[in-house]
């Protein structure tokens, strides 16, 4: 599988530069790519895909058997299934740590495109989702 973004492991002229938008920070959706401050390293920034949202119950491929994503948090995973430096290592990420959404690849020119919201088959996906109606939570 070809990675969505080419990062620091690539030569400088092959690395992707992405357009980041702060618009929509309060409405993240599953499949979108966001930059954020990792909870275990406040000096760095990560760019990962949202694979689960608050209230979702997930079964990570690595780590605990089941996790319920807390209110106001997101499960962030790398598109590279071999890169475990994401929520599988440090757990859910608070929405307050999201800094921007990646919307386009703007460099190199041959990779210029819109970044679509998608989830890959190797990603952790919710096995149950909690819905709320008039403040009452329903687990389906």
Automatic annotation (TrEMBL):
Swiss-Prot/TrEMBL GO biological process terms: protein processing involved in protein targeting to mitochondrion; signal peptide processing
Q: Which SUPFAM superfamilies match?
A: LexA/Signal peptidase (SSF51306)
Task: Give the UniProt keywords, A-Z.
Answer: Hydrolase, Membrane, Mitochondrion, Mitochondrion inner membrane, Protease, Transmembrane, Transmembrane helix
Secretion signal span: none
A single Gene Ontology MF term assigned here is: serine-type endopeptidase activity
Q: In terms of domain of life, where is this protein from? A: Eukaryota
Q: Where in the cell is it found?
A: Mitochondrion inner membrane
Q: How does it sit in the membrane?
A: Single-pass membrane protein
Q: Which InterPro entries match?
A: IMP2, LexA/Signal_pep-like_sf, Pept_S26A_signal_pept_1, Peptidase_S26
**One GO CC annotation, please?**
mitochondrial inner membrane peptidase complex
**Coiled-coil region list:** none
Family per UniProt?
Belongs to the peptidase S26 family. IMP2 subfamily.
Tell me, how does this one assemble?
Heterodimer of 2 subunits, IMMPL1 and IMMPL2.
**The protein's name in its UniProt record:** Mitochondrial inner membrane protease subunit 2
| Organism phylogeny | Eukaryota, Metazoa, Ecdysozoa, Nematoda, Chromadorea
């Amino acid at each position: 599988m070809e990675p969505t973004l080419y990062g620091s492991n690539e030569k400088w002229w092959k690395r992707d530069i992405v357009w980041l938008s702060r618009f929509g920070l309060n409405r993240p959706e599953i499949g979108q790519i966001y930059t954020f401050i990792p909870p275990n390293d406040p000096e760095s920034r990560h760019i990962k895909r949202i694979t689960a949202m608050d209230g979702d119950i997930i079964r990570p491929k690595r780590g605990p058997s089941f996790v319920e994503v807390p209110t106001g948090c997101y499960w962030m995973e790398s598109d590279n299934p071999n890169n475990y430096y994401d929520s599988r290592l440090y757990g859910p990420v608070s929405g307050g740590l999201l800094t921007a959404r990646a919307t386009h690849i703007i460099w190199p020119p041959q990779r210029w495109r819109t970044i679509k919201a998608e989830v890959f088959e190797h990603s952790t996906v919710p096995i149950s989702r909690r819905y709320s109606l008039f403040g009452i939570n329903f687990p389906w």
